[in-house]
């Protein structure tokens, strides 16, 4: 790496990222005139409804859940693509909502980067790869000399397993896996410490997925990166993550380190998700019956949002939303049944 | 990469038999061979999984069987036999009678395979009336029965709803009901669960398995997901670059894959409970159709390739 990252002295032992009671709601009301005529109130979709977690340096934290659970919204809130309705995002001791100047914002912003799900849609088809990868370098003004930028782009391309000559090509000349490598090279261009990866492999075939996951692990070992890894694929999450947060309808229902979560899931939703994984080793395990579907997030069920699908439901679950509390096994889980010990 | 030419039990005719199928796409820059010398059988009531990466030709094989190959694609050689009768040469009119009646299809995206302007009941009764000689009232009754069978709650009310009023999983159930309405002998399910969430996917696979067992319907299950195959299929065919790499009973292929490509494919799938630090990686990518290497199509990526593989 030819550009030392000019980071301020890190606060020892503090998490790199702290997310506290994060909320994001989107307005889904009908147009003004309809609301007046039909006497309807404004309606909001709570995409993220009070999510808190921390990510330590060098760690991979995964958010997992089904579509519509808000995991991608969390990712976009962290990198600043959406604005939070409430809550705090603290990166290395600095509250991202309280940054004073544009210069300070740029300094912090340079330290994280995002990889998107669809490598076809996230690369400008009219730009050559070298220009795509050099964009963050130019935006943050890291290098000004064209030759130096070209050398850096070549270095990045080599780092992700492509050849420096590929910089002259356009995105359409590459396969899906190669395009995702280009996205990773672009994300690494400003020497970030923290990468937000939103379903980085779900548009790829399994053998290509293996290449990208291996590459991401190598880069983490080499550069000491911290990942927020978002996926709906539990097996991929198990493979990549150190700690896992399970989301359901905008809330975290369980947080635990990866091994204990998968060996000993506590929350009924986590158990249900694990039961749905196809038995690829064909050990003849019979999985539990999976019930129902994710409800409409505009009108979520009252109380615990999982209660209509939960086998352990009682009256309290139908009226009172559970909070994320430590369990006897050291997980964090939001479930009245676990709290009360009725399993 | 020669698959065994005959793998059906001797004696009885398989329900579907594909023999040395070759599909070509003539283009300005020469003829592309998308499917090359593919042969396999499906017995009655059997679930054959067809697995491979995007572009391997698995959906194309399904489309060729049901006669929905889009021009300029054409069957250049080989044959498709249904119950011993060739169906790839049938005129369009007669093929229409088979399609939906004897072979039906389930597509990946349930939203685009249902007509948004008709109620699901109308779509199901229309299909029943096309293929079976019963009256309108009986067809509607049958439609409600079918919706109940695929697990749609309150089918007598849901029958009058439009597709947008159903969730993704429920829509795919409707599509399955549509595929079942003429009691076909073979269903070609092209990525039936890919667009669905994992918890819904498990339900749909269970449903498909149960229905096929109850109706003794054979299924050709096209998917890229080895997990789905392991759950649902009796036998599995692995495709690579338009050719069959390996075909065999699902347990044998999953647990002891023979072909180096299948071995790489299985190793590249993250598995719960297995603490592997690195996934097996097949370097490179599947060749494009205009650049399929001579000899075995997999040889440039194969770790065990020798001179014969290259020619």
From TrEMBL, chain B:
Keyword Ribonucleoprotein: no
Domain (ABC transporter) ranges: 18-266
GO molecular function: ATP binding; ATP hydrolysis activity
Pfam families, alphabetized: ABC_tran, oligo_HPY
GO biological process assignments: peptide transport; transmembrane transport
Cellular component, GO annotation: plasma membrane
InterPro entries xref list: AAA+_ATPase, ABC_Ni/Peptide_Import, ABC_transporter-like_ATP-bd, ABC_transporter-like_CS, Oligopep_ABC_C, P-loop_NTPase
Signal peptide residue numbers: none
Membrane topology: Peripheral membrane protein
Domain of life assignment: Bacteria
Localization terms from the record: Cell inner membrane
Keywords: ATP-binding, Cell membrane, Membrane, Nucleotide-binding, Transport
Family: Belongs to the ABC transporter superfamily.
NCBIfam families (UniProt xref): oligo_HPY
Protein known as: ATP-binding cassette domain-containing protein
Species of origin: Azoarcus taiwanensis
């Amino acid at each position: 790496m030819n550009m030392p990252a000019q980071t301020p002295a890190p606060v020892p032992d503090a998490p790199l990222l702290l997310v506290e009671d994060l909320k994001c709601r989107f307005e889904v009301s009908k147009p003004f005139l309809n609301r007046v005529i039909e006497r309807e109130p404004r309606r909001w979709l709570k995409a993220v409804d009070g999510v808190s977690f921390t990510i330590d340096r060098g760690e991979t934290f995964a958010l997992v859940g089904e579509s519509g659970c808000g995991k991608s919204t969390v990712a976009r809130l962290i990198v600043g693509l959406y604005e939070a309705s409430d809550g705090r995002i603290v990166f290395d001791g600095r509250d991202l909502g309280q940054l004073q100047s544009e210069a300070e914002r740029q300094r912090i912003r340079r330290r994280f980067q995002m990889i998107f799900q669809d490598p076809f849609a996230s690369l400008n088809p009219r730009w050559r790869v070298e220009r795509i990868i050099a964009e963050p370098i130019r935006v943050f003004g890291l290098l000004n000399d064209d030759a130096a930028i070209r050398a850096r782009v070549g270095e990045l391309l080599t780092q992700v397993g492509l050849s420096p000559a590929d910089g002259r090509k356009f995105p359409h000349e590459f396969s899906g896996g190669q395009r995702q490598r280009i996205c990773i090279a672009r994300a690494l261009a400003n020497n970030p410490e923290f990468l937000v990866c939103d379903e980085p492999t779900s548009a790829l075939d399994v053998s290509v997925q293996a290449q990208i996951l291996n590459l991401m692990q190598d880069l983490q070992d080499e550069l000491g990166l911290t990942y927020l890894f978002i996926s709906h694929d539990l097996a991929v999450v198990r493979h990549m993550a150190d700690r896992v947060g399970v989301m359901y309808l905008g809330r975290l229902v369980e947080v635990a380190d990866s091994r204990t979560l998968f060996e000993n899931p506590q929350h009924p939703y986590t158990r249900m998700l694990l039961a749905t994984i196809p038995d690829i080793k064909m050990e003849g395990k019979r999985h539990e019956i999976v019930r129902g579907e994710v409800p409409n997030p505009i009108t979520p069920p009252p109380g615990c949002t999982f209660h209509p699908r939960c086998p352990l439901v009682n009256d309290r679950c139908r009226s009172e939303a559970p909070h994320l509390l430590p369990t006897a096994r050291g997980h964090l889980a939001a479930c009245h049944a676990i709290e009360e010990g009725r399993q | 990469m020669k698959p065994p030419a005959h793998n059906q039990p001797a004696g009885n005719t398989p329900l579907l038999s594909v023999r040395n199928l070759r599909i070509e796409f003539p283009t300005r820059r020469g003829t592309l061979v998308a499917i090359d010398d593919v042969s396999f059988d499906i017995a009655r009531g059997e679930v054959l999984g067809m697995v491979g990466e995007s572009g391997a030709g698995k959906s194309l094989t399904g489309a060729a069987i049901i006669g929905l190959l889009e021009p300029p694609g054409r069957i250049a050689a080989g044959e498709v036999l249904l119950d011993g009768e060739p169906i790839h040469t049938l005129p369009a009119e007669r093929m229409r009678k088979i399609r939906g009646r004897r072979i039906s299809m389930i597509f990946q995206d349930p939203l685009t395979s249902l007509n948004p302007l008709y109620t699901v009941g109308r779509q199901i009764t229309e299909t029943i009336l096309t293929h079976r000689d019963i009256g309108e009232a009986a067809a509607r009754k049958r439609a409600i029965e079918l919706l109940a069978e695929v697990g749609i709650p309150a089918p007598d009310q849901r029958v009058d709803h439009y597709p947008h009023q159903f969730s993704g999983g429920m829509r795919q159930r409707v599509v399955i009901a549509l595929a079942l309405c003429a009691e076909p002998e073979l269903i070609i399910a092209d990525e039936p669960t890919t667009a669905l969430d994992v918890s819904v996917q498990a339900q749909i696979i269970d449903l498909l398995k149960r229905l096929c067992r109850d109706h003794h319907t054979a299924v050709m299950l096209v998917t890229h997901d080895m997990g789905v195959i392991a759950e649902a299929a009796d036998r599995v065919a692995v495709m690579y670059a338009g050719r069959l790499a390996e075909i065999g009973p699902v347990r044998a292929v999953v647990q002891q894959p023979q072909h180096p490509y299948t071995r790489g494919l299985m190793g590249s799938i993250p598995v719960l409970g297995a603490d592997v630090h690195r996934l097996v990686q097949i370097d490179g990518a599947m060749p494009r159709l205009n650049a399929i290497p001579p000899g075995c199509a997999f040889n440039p990526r194969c770790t065990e390739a020798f001179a014969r593989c290259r020619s």
